[in-house]
Amino acid sequence: MQVIATHTILADVVANVAGDFADVVALMPINADPHTFVPAPSDVARLADANLVFVNGAFFEEGLLEVIENAAVEVNIVEASQCVPILPFGAHDHDLEAEHAAADAAETAAPLPEGEFAERCAGYYEAMTILHGGEAHADHEGDEAEQDAQHGHGVEPLGPLYVLDCAGGHGHEAEAAADHDHVEGGCDPHVWWEPHNVIFWTMTIRDSLSELDPVNAAAYAANAAAYIDALDALAHDEIRPLIESLPAERRILVTDHDSLGYFASAYGFEVVGVVIPGGSTLAEPSPAETAALIDLIRQEGVSAIIVGTTVSSVMADQVSAETGAQIVRIYTDSLSETGGPAGTYLDFMRYNADVIVGALGASS
């Protein structure tokens, strides 16, 4: 079976569930910027020949969606994040403007529809509750289970992806929100920065593979169960103790673009500023925005600017030169080369958390 995932992080998760029963490849190469990537003719041909294509969803792929849909006309296209509770951009900020923006974005969410996706996602939320020591109840409402799955982070999600239209969703996502306003750029697609969201990915991948290849469903279920255990251990036994070693007052982030919202919400960080406004690297800051960021970094005493490997550091270098904050490189939208420090999703999270904590704790 030929399976394509749009980016390397998603492809690694798919490969862990598929095991030996599928040939899994990433559409975008390592360190490709998903906001600017243009597929080659060979990529388009691979899409047409695939049995299954996994996309991130929440408009992460931007201009790629039309290419994927046109090339993979007869192919099942699955949004891996369909059951992930989506946060609005800026959900990690603690100012009134961000709260108003989140409230406005939430109003555009469609009511929870009945049917396949509501039932499937409710089952995933129940499984997450059980994973964390809760008890599943047959009459447990889907929205309540979804809230339980947020782990009490105090951030109100817009809703699961399948009820949202994140400025260009396709398939069930667009149909579910056909009579509702777009969440114009309001959905944060960087869901993998919270390992529990990748558990939702894993469940979706397991069931999608099993539907297409029921003969090997038991293997997909076993692989998914083992990977879910690894993800949960990563979140609770590795990442959280590491973050808790960093004093709360030092959990202040400035990033290249708005990509660490889920990480910040999950682990008690505050993203006080971004070099490139918004969640896309296609935007450019105005001189006034850059000047305001420089003033903010000086005022807050921020010691590091976090820059992803898929993003040019030119603008961040300018801010660094003006403020003395060091440039710290992490992997944000892509894994590293195989055998590198972030060659798998599990290593991606370990490496990035260690680098972030090291950079912010260095001057404490």
Molecular structure report:
With 364 residues, the chain is of the alpha/beta class. It folds into 2 domains: 2-235, Nitrogenase molybdenum iron protein domain (Rossmann fold, 3-Layer(aba) Sandwich); 245-361, Nitrogenase molybdenum iron protein domain (Rossmann fold, 3-Layer(aba) Sandwich), CATH 3.40.50.1980. 45% of the residues lie in helices and 11% in strands. It has helices at residues 8-18, 41-49, 64-71, 96-106, 116-131, 142-148, 171-176, 195-212, 217-244, 261-267, 287-300, 314-323, 345-361, and strands at 2-5, 23-26, 52-55, 76-79, 85-86, 159-160, 252-255, 270-274, 304-308, 326-330. A 4-stranded parallel sheet has the order 2-1-3-4, sandwiched between helices. Strands 5-6 form a two-stranded antiparallel ribbon. The longest helix has 28 residues, at 217-244.
Annotate the secondary structure layout.
Elements: E1 2-5, H1 8-18, E2 23-26, H2 41-49, E3 52-55, H3 64-71, E4 76-79, E5 85-86, H4 96-106, H5 116-131, H6 142-148, E6 159-160, H7 171-176, H8 195-212, H9 217-244, E7 252-255, H10 261-267, E8 270-274, H11 287-300, E9 304-308, H12 314-323, E10 326-330, H13 345-361
Parallel strand pairs: 1-2, 1-3, 3-4, 7-8, 9-10
Antiparallel strand pairs: 5-6
Number of domains: 2
Poorly predicted ranges:
94-112, 135-153, 168-185
N/C terminus separation:
51 Å
User: In terms of structural class, how would the helical and strand content be classed?
Assistant: alpha/beta
Order of helices and strands: EHEHEHEEHHHEHHHEHEHEHEH
Radius of gyration: 20 Å
Mean pLDDT over the full residue set: 85
CATH topology of the largest domain, by name, is Rossmann fold
What is the helical fraction, as a range of percent?
40-55%
Q: Strand percentage, roughly?
A: 5-15%
Question: How many H/I helical runs?
Answer: 13
Largest sheet data: 4 strands, parallel
Q: How many strand segments? A: 10
CATH hierarchy: architecture of the largest domain: 3-Layer(aba) Sandwich
In CATH, the homologous superfamily of the largest domain goes by the name: Nitrogenase molybdenum iron protein domain
Shape: globular
CATH class of the largest domain equals Alpha Beta
- Largest beta sheet: strand ordering: 2-1-3-4
